[in-house]
Amino acid sequence: MLYFSKLRILFISLFSLLFILIASSNLFKFDDSFFNKKINLGLDLQGGSYLLLEIDNKPVIEQKLQNLTTTVRNYFKDKNIKITNIKIENQNIFFKVSDQNKQTIIDTFTDENSDINPYYPRFKSHQLDIEDTGFNFKLSFSRQGLIALKTSSQDQAIEIVRRRIDEVGTNEPNILKRGNNRILVELPGLDDPMRVKSLLGKTANLTFRFVTNNDNDSFGVEKLKYEDGIEEATVSKRIIISGDNLLDAQPKMDTQTNQTIVSFSLDRVGAKRFGKATSTGIGKQLAIVLDGKIISAPVIRDTIASGSGQISGGFTFQSATDLALLLRSGALPAPLNIIEERTVGPDLGQDSINAGMIALAIGFLLVIIFMFVKYKIFGLITNVTLIINLFILLGVLTLFEATLTLPGIAGIILTVGMAVDANVLIFERIKEELRDENNNIVAFDSGYTKSRTAIIDANITTLLAAIILFFMGSGPVKGFSVTLGVGIFTTLFSVYFIARLFTSLYVSKNRDKEKLI
Amino acid sequence: MIAFNKYYNHFNLVSTLLIIISLILLIFKGLNFGIDFKGGTLIELRSNDTKINVSSLRDKFSQMNLGDVSVKKFGNDTDYLIKFENKDNKKNIIEEIKINLDKSFGNNFNFRRVENVGPKVSAELLKSGVIAISLSLAVMLFYIWIRFEWQFSLGAILALFHDVIVTLGIFSLLSLEINLSIIAAVLTIVGYSMNDTVVIYDRVRENLRKYSDIKIFELTNISINETLSRTIITSATTLLALIAIYFFGGEILKGFSLAMILGVVFGTYSSIYIANTVLVRLKVSQKTVLREDDNK
User: Residue B212: which CATH number?
Assistant: First the structure.
């Protein structure tokens, strides 16, 4: 166990040096991209916001079912089957048909080539499940149908979220899917999380609709409140143009009224419809509705054929900027709720880094002094090894560009405390061996051999705990499991290669010395 | 040689009492779950105005209609930690609080940290925390079952349960907050306690093979003594590192390092007085390990 070939010594030195060099790239700037890696600081250390958003799919499902009732009615009307008593209840569609048509209905919905109920061959499932309750038919989304719907609204939502955050201009945001109805947003170094939160909290569903006094409007009408929440107006459900028709939106200053406005331009289809509506509707009020609230309802004075217009509604410059941003980036398919938020200010982050570093330095110092007092020359070997171990650990974290969090720093300090364990096990064993053995080299050799199983067992148990924590833990705690786990490997390496190398050099030089340890 | 075995019965009684008291505390007093597991909102504030004190701040917050609000000093004299349930999960609550505070105290507060955990997420976090701890115990049981004979597995697991339950019991007694980092601490305690137990067990097994004429009562004592200096040194260095975190690592790591300190102390104690006494009570002998060797 104590013999090291020249080649092996060279290999160990080079390996250690490499990682020390990589670790030092956190302090210096290297031109080479391989060395110019850095440990990422977690949000708790550099400051920033962590937001977990959940998509509220209920309105999407209800809208889809609403559309489906019309589709189903028309589809079977063409086949001369009359659908009666159709209604939506608890996300199910119920309807009735005459007895002789029941089989046709079931066949249509369970046919793999059905054009009304898409079939997913991969999951052997239709989009919709049909059930004959005896009294009526119950139509609902199947498990796969629901998953497909959620996934698609998640895909759309993440795109819109990304656009909105890009428009705000935060550096290096991290936007990820979680499950099939959640979106994780990490925004490092954000100054004003409230603005982003309010931007993400809006669906931004914009429609232009006529204000009407006629309750018999063929599209139906609804009463909507103004932004101030007091005034109300009756608005037709017919949508003239929607946010989808917008090409661009910008905040502007109206030079005549000195008001902040949002000017917009429409695509071709939108411009045509807007032109037609403004020419036939002169004198009428056109309501501009955002997320179910009326921003303003100006009276049409002229035909607008240019395909551009403006929205006024008592905006401040900030609110006009935000509205323009929301309109440019498009509407969310469904409302988003922030179900978890963790924001750390930059000064607290810096305080945490400082505290972590001071704790690391003090912890390190205490351990080093203790080991030196206890083991003298072998304590010195352990301490040098410990320093190299720390650098290798930092080097590995840098190489993989791991994220360092405050608990992660705690993991490093803990590694320092526990790393001496293996060396202590070895040294204590050697002491025992030396009681019956006069040959120093033999005693050292068997000390290393006999302590091995205990060291491996002991490290595996800690490693197992770290692995479980890595998979079950979240955020900062994950950082702890990473440093703890990586620390075990670097510790084993430094104990069995570096410390053993030093030990062997010392023991070979002092092979005849009594009371070596 | 220290006669640890003289006190086996005494300390078994002490441990049993500790576990019973902890369980009673856990069942009747319960744990003080933080917002990670209970849901709610947490704000860390720093005031620039030294005239502002905790009671005026508390008064202000209780007027804001937030439900049950707790306002505490947090480390520094100018730092405060505010926690409330946020039952309605109001969206702009932070903004409202900011406006309210600015109105009464002027623009003197720095919002250093804001955490808001919804009821759904906190329930999930609690579930995954419980799963993580149970899983770690199961994995340790499995590992030790492969490496050692069943008597040893039982001893090691009893020691683990002891450490986890007593540490949580102390957290319950002192009403210390349980948050995500405490779960990390408990898992690390599980790893550490196991580590400590395994080192002594390794020696017990080695000695069982070596000496056929020494009874387990005596043999465990020999093994404890042979590994004692290692036990003390490793516990000492680990505790030194943890004490450095506790005193210098900042307020956020206080709970974590305290849990770890308790865990290391109890982990060391249980390796000696629980793991070994189980072997004595199960009358482990040379036959136990030799039979296993024959099978291999």
Answer: 1.20.1640.10
